[in-house]
């Protein structure tokens, strides 16, 4: 386990840069930047590889750390399985830690996948200017690499606060351990990378589907500014996205999300993680991880439509809470699109009806193999970000216009009451189950209060949160409510700076 991150950061050692020195002789049989990076196709292959960890992050990690670690979804206990999972610690805000580090595997794997993106993009950015090929193509690749590095560091900053700031390839073990950069330093680098990326990237209409665009880079940078409460800069970027003509709300909310084989990178999509159903190894299965258990094959097929449904055991994850279900206003068309219900005949609960995340539950061919894309940024979030940025500057009339565009699509009337709270509420239901809730609670200063009250509700009425009769939360549930995750213990063992 401890060797894994050394391998991750030492990716650059296999592709290490060689000094421009006639005495430097690189063996032609040794893989290095001098022998691999010789033409445009090599950099295209490298940037493709930098996208790959996003599939693991969004299929297996981000929903745990950003959604189930909130009051939107909860852990579905199956007493017939009987195991205590590390997912449960995340849902219960009971992640064990000591001296600022944790042994939680999911926290460790998120950290490593982000640094894998960073290692791969650092290699591209450190070598690409040494090779001659068409400037437009070179800028496109550089822009994608800068975006992906910024995205990875944005995740790390929001999860951990202080992290090592690697900006060049790591070529030996000593270089792999760096002091923790401050949160301000990490954010400054994110802003720098994205500011450089935006003019290099083409708009969506001129970019290959699924790749990063100038609109995606503007949206990510605006998200950064929203976190920093830099409202004027956020407003400028978001207006550019809105006026670009590249994006629009899809009239029917049910049509927003991709199926397993179609409707991908549609008009509302600003950036989404690509999955491909089939045997190529590019598929996902996150909807299976989200379903309550135990689920018989005849029950599962009503959701998935597969030709070979198989029963699901173990524990369920990311189960919509009564809190998020109650958050939808009467008449909100998004509720039935986002949340479904299923009766589990084998459940130990007297009430055997469970909710599940329906917005990703698209029919597909084979069990546990889907091609549904994950939406990272949608145009509706651009509108809500813009509404928030305007409202925070006192431009309430214009802010309401953008907020009400989103509400109108949901079949709702114009927002009333406190506009700030209306925007927060709209983000919760419009972006439910898209890994936004925890970050929103933190950046708006409501995390501790909201989660403390949420934990008290669970402890007061466990059965309402899917505990079987007679079962109660563990004694240490909701005992570690903090704004940041502790750093991974396995990484601390490799660095003197943690």
UniProtKB/TrEMBL annotation:
Pfam annotation, one family: SusD-like_3
Subcellular localization: Cell outer membrane
Domain of life: Bacteria
Annotated RagB/SusD domain residues: 349-478
Residues of the SusD-like N-terminal domain: 36-225
Transmembrane segments: none
UniProtKB keywords: Cell outer membrane, Membrane, Signal
Record-linked CDD domains: SusD
Gene Ontology cellular component list: cell outer membrane
UniProt record similarity statement: Belongs to the SusD family.
The protein, known as: RagB/SusD family nutrient uptake outer membrane protein
Organism: Adhaeribacter swui
Lineage, highest ranks first: Bacteria, Pseudomonadati, Bacteroidota, Cytophagia, Cytophagales
């Amino acid at each position: 386990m401890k060797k894994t991150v050394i391998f991750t950061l030492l990716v650059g050692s296999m592709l290490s840069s060689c000094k421009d020195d006639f005495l430097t002789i690189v063996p032609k049989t040794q893989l290095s930047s001098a022998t691999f990076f010789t033409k445009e196709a090599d950099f295209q292959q490298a940037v493709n590889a930098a996208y790959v960890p996003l599939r693991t992050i969004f299929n297996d990690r981000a929903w745990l750390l950003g959604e189930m670690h909130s009051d939107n979804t909860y852990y579905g206990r199956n007493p017939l399985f009987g195991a205590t999972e590390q997912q449960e610690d995340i849902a219960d805000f009971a992640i064990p830690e000591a001296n600022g580090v944790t042994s939680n595997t999911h926290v460790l794997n998120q950290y490593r996948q982000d640094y894998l993106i960073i290692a791969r993009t650092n290699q591209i950015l450190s070598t690409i200017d040494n090779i001659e090929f068409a400037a437009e193509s070179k800028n496109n690749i550089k822009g994608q690499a800068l975006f992906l590095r910024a995205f990875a560091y944005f995740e790390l900053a929001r999860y951990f606060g202080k992290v090592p700031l690697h900006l060049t390839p790591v070529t030996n073990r000593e270089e792999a351990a760096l002091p923790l950069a401050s949160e301000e330093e990490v954010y400054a680098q994110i802003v720098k990378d994205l500011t450089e990326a935006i003019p290099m990237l083409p708009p969506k209409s001129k970019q290959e589907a699924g790749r990063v665009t100038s609109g995606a880079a503007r949206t990510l940078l605006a998200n950064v500014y929203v976190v920093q409460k830099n409202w004027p800069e956020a407003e400028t970027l978001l207006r550019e996205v809105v006026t670009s003509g590249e994006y629009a709300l899809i009239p029917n909310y049910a049509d927003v999300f991709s199926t397993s084989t179609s409707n991908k990178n549609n008009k509302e999509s600003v950036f989404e993680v690509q999955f491909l159903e089939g045997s190529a190894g590019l598929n996902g299965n996150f909807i299976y991880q989200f379903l309550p258990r135990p689920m018989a094959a005849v029950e599962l097929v009503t959701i998935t439509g597969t030709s070979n449904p198989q029963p699901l055991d173990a524990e369920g994850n990311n189960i919509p809470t009564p809190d998020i279900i109650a958050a939808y206003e009467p008449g909100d068309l998004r509720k039935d699109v986002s949340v479904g219900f299923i009766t589990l005949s084998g459940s130990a609960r007297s009430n055997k009806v469970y909710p599940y995340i329906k917005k990703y539950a698209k029919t597909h061919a084979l069990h546990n193999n889907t091609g549904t894309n994950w939406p990272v940024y949608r145009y509706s979030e651009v509108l809500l970000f813009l509404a928030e940025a305007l409202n925070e500057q006192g431009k309430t009339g214009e802010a309401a216009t953008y907020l009400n565009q989103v509400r109108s699509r949901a079949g709702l009337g114009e927002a009333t009451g406190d506009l700030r709270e209306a925007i927060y509420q709209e983000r919760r239901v419009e972006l439910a189950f898209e890994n936004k809730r925890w970050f929103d609670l933190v950046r708006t200063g409501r995390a501790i209060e909201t989660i403390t009250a949420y934990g008290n509700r669970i402890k007061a009425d466990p059965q309402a949160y899917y505990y079987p009769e007679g079962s109660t939360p563990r004694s240490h549930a909701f005992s570690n409510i903090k704004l940041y995750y502790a750093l991974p213990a396995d990484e601390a063992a490799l660095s003197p700076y943690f």
